[in-house]
Amino acid sequence: MAPAGSTGSHEIERPGGHCVRAPRRWAGFTRLHAVVALLGCALLTTAQTRAAESTGEPPSCRAVRLSDVGWTDVTATTATLTVLLKSLGYLPQTTVLSVPVTYASMKNKDIDAFLGDWMPTQEGDIRPFLTDGSVEVLGPNLTGAKYTLAVPAYTHEAGLRSFADIERYAAPLHGSIYGIEPGNDGNRLVLGMLRQNLFGLGGFKLVESSEQGMLAQVERATSRNEDVVFLGWAPHPMNSKFKISYLSGGDDVFGPKTSAPPERYFMSNFVFIGWGSQPRKTMYCLAFTAR
What radius of gyration do the chain's Cα atoms show? Predict the structure, then answer.
């Protein structure tokens, strides 16, 4: 069943075995991100696999090109989808790309699907592609997610509990907030916050590197019991490897329900151009949770 406020999509095969994929628009979105969790699909049987292989689809329609932006959680969910698609007789291929290149590649029909559309932080990235109809949102694939600034639990207990508290810790934080790869939506939101001097943070700098580089800095800081502010999200192994707390008061930066107390979550969407009927059905029943 298509989401409310959307129209159906259909796939037409042109002479020569090429597929034309007509996008289905979805007016309202709800933000999100993805990671390992609970699969809501029924077990795929041998009969289903044989059925998929007997659909008569040409190879160009059975190849499913996926983007992985290199975040641990997206890598895990993409790998899960890959296993499911292979069991259905499709030919998934994964390419590691940045978020901006992912959306541009989807518009150019070089990438079919992406499981890491964090909303609302990626709204600025995806909006032009939704407006021109080159990319669509299928629906949420993850519940119980979070994405905002985080600190070690001991820093939180000491008093750095909200965005408004960061400026008071400028000295022990060395005026720095740690992000991930350049061009990431979270980095962009933090940079905007600094440029506008929100919460008095105009004198701070954003240290951009990668997910691994940022977490290496968090590990160094926590091993020395030092303070550090960084981009955090759940689900992600960082939540079990480190004792961390998420800062409140950042809804004007990261959007509502993202930087609120940890019990409040946002959701994740599939973003894709559109495929044949069986992969689409698989998308609809694929679901993850944060635990």
Answer: 20
